[in-house]
Amino acid sequence: MPSNSPEFKVSAPVQVRMSDLDPFAHVNNGNQCHYFDLGRSAYLEKVLQNQVDWTTIDLVLVHIELDFMHPVLFHDTLVCESKIVEIGNKSLTMIQQLRDTKTDTVKTRCKSVLAGFDRHTHSSIPVNEAYKSKIRDFEGI
Fold first, then answer.
1. What pTM did the predictor assign?
2. Beta carbons of 10 and 81 less than 8 angstroms apart
């Protein structure tokens, strides 16, 4: 993942809950995936200008990688920042980060791939052209 911070146009606040903590009082790595899900939804809703229904949308998460740079703690004031950086025929590549707004520290970085998916046939499809157009306009890519 890139070491420099790209410009993120979408930022979603994240509330850390007591149930998110592990025995070391850090936010559990698995729970951080939920934070990135929240950011992914916020991004798509902003760009597509419509509420996302993950049970019907023709996109599915097919890959995710995380870099845990600093522990996320209960009193951190977090945002999940999201950006699509690549648009392919059948996939979109997104980068995200969890950043503490009090210290400006990036706690965790994420790179994920969303793919076009037909929920009726359970098969890969090209990413909807309307999505691509809106993302290109929004991101300037």
1. 0.93
2. yes
